[in-house]
Every structure is written in C-alpha cells, then in structure tokens.
Amino acid sequence: MSHIYVKSEKIVDANPEDVYAVISDYREKRPQLLTSNFVDYKVERGGRGDGTVVSYRLHAARRERPYHIQVKEPVKGQVLVENDTNSSLVTTWTVSPIEDGQRTNVRLVTEWEGGSGINGFFERTFAPIGLRRIYNTVLNHLDTTLPTTGKKARPESLTLTRETPPESVKKNVSLLALILGGVIALAAIISYLQRSRA
Q1: What is the pTM of this model?
Q2: pLDDT digit string, tens, across residues 94-124
Q3: How far apart are CA 140 and CA 42, in angstroms?
Q4: With contact defined as beta carbons under 8 Å apart, do 12 and 103 qualify?
Q5: For residue 129, how far is the Cα from the chain centroid?
Q6: For residue 30, which of 5, 12, 54 has the smallest C-alpha distance?
Q7: Per-residue confidence band for 180, with pLDDT thresholds at 50, 70 and 90
Q8: Superfamily of domain 2-162
C-alpha cells in the first residue's frame, strides 16, 4: 500500500468569509460547484459545516465508487475536513486570506492509502491526474459562484496545479516537433543552396 496525495489550489477574488460560506454550504451551494463526476449527490444530515453527512458516487476513468462523507470543522471559518466512512479517504478544504482579506487562497487536498500490486501502481499513477482535473473544475466553479470584492482578477487567480495536464504536454510536444522539423528543413535547404552555388 502507498499513500496518495492530490492537491489543487486557486486564488479567488473574494474575501475568506464569503468563500467559506459557499464551501461549507453542502445543501445549496456545494451542488453548484460539483462536476458531473459526482453522481446522486445527497445530503443525509445537516447541510452546513460540522456534522453534515453527504453521500455520492464518484465517476472517473470509467469507474464509479460510492462515498459516505462526514464533515468536521477543526478550525471554523478556515478548515473543513471530509472523511469517507468506508475508506481511508480524507479531503481537506483550507481557506487562507491574502491581501488583507480582499482575496483568498483556497486549497483542496485529498489523501488516501492506495492499493498494492499492479492495481495500486495504476491508482498511484492515474488517480491523482484525474482527481486533480475534477478539483480544478470545482475550484473554477467556486470562483464563478462567489461575489467579487470589486477588484479585477489578476493572473494569480488562475488555477495552480502541481503538474501540466497531459493534453498540454501533447500540444507542446507536437509544436516542438513541428518547429524542429521546420529548422531541419530550413538547414537542408540552405545547405543545398550553398552546394549548388559552389
């Protein structure tokens, strides 16, 4: 078994109180943030912050797994912890003020103990990539749901990820191959012209 850690974070143009009010509202606001990967999302108890219980099925990479989540607030107004009662999975939302509370850094971290063997290898390799994509979208939905502080969004408000998504890598490799091919062709033409003049 191995420990798997997935993190996404985003700086949003809203104050921490407004951000926390949205992410801690599991009944009204949270469904607006979720992607279509979250199937049959249901609030079973509570609905706001500590003591809330929700259930859903997470559909990703052609697989679907049920979750039964209990919510705790170890630091009210700043930290929400979501524990799956059926596994080792723990998701922590952390809200940190920046620029004197005019903007907010939102960090979303999920950790769990992965499987072993070949299935564990694929889980360690691919689950973080897929989950990070889902979380980036959730954080983008959060950003559009929040009331702004009146300041213009800046480049820092883009989603921060720990690695480049595979689509971008493919585009960059293709572009690099095209440029390299062009340089080689140009060098061959110049060499040919120099030889023909000699």
Answers
A1: 0.72
A2: 999 999 989 999 999 999 998 878 777 777 7
A3: 22
A4: yes
A5: 9
A6: 54
A7: low
A8: START domain (3.30.530.20)
Domain segments of the chain: what residues?
Answer: 2-162, 164-198
Q: Which amino acid is at 85?
A: T
Phi, psi (5° rounding) for residue 41? -65, 130
User: Which DSSP letter does residue 143 get?
Assistant: H
State whether residue 144 is helix, strand or coil: helix
Picking from 29, 25, 15, 5, the residue whose alpha carbon sits closest to that of residue 96 is 15
192: left (phi over 0), alpha (psi -120 to 50) or beta: alpha
Q: Which two tokens stand for residue 185?
A: 């062709």
The pair of three-digit structure tokens given for residue 18, joined into one six-digit string: 């407004």
3-state helix, strand, coil in the chain (%, to 5): 40, 35, 25
**Cα four-point dihedral sign 153, 156, 160, 163:** positive
Tens of pLDDT, residues 185-194 = 655 566 566 6
H-assigned helices in the chain: 16-23, 30-33, 117-145, 166-197
| Bridge-based pairing state of the strands 90-98 and 103-114 | antiparallel
